Amino acid sequence: MGKKEEIGRIASERILVLYGQAKMTDDDELSHTYISMLREIAKHCRKHIPTHIKNSFCKDCGRMFSRTESSVRLSSSIGYVSVKCGHCGKERHIFYKH
Ligand SMILES: [Zn+2]
């Protein structure tokens, strides 16, 4: 395995670990820190963040969408879920039909 592949593999692992920690904690600031770190690693190593992880946090403020603080609207005809971030109020669409 080359050095580049090795770094990529470690980066993917770190992303998953950080996401797991962000999900587990009740501490908002801590999960924000984990998400920031995860995004930094992805950017630095030019790794794609897995879709299910990407869809679970706000791209704008980097905080996890929580069930209580974000509002979810379903649009079945177009095939997306509209999620409004409870922290910065930014709305984003998560497409599930292609
Ligand atoms: Zn936000």
Low-confidence stretches: none
Shape: globular
Estimate the helix proportion, in percent.
Answer: 40-55%
Distance between the termini: 35 Å
Rounded mean pLDDT is 87
Main sheet strand line-up? 1-2-3
Structural Rg: 15 Å
Sketch the topology as an H/E string, one letter per element. Answer: HHHEEE
| Number of H- or I-type helical stretches | 3
Report the count of strand segments.
Answer: 3
Bound molecules: zinc ion
Please indicate the count of domains.
Answer: 1
In terms of DSSP E residues, the strand content is 15-25%
Q: How would a textbook summarize the main sheet?
A: 3 strands, antiparallel
| Helix vs. strand class | alpha+beta
Task: Tell me what the structure shows.
By secondary structure, this protein is of the alpha+beta class. The protein has one domain (3-95). Helices cover 44% and strands 15% of the residues. The protein contains three helices and three strands, in the order H-H-H-E-E-E. The chain has helices at 3-24, 28-44, 51-54, and strands at 71-75, 80-84, 91-95. It has a three-stranded antiparallel beta sheet, with no helix packed on it. A hairpin with a 4-residue loop joins strand 1 (71-75) and strand 2. The chain is globular, with a radius of gyration of 15 Å. The chain starts with a helix and ends with a strand. The mean pLDDT is 87. It binds zinc ion.
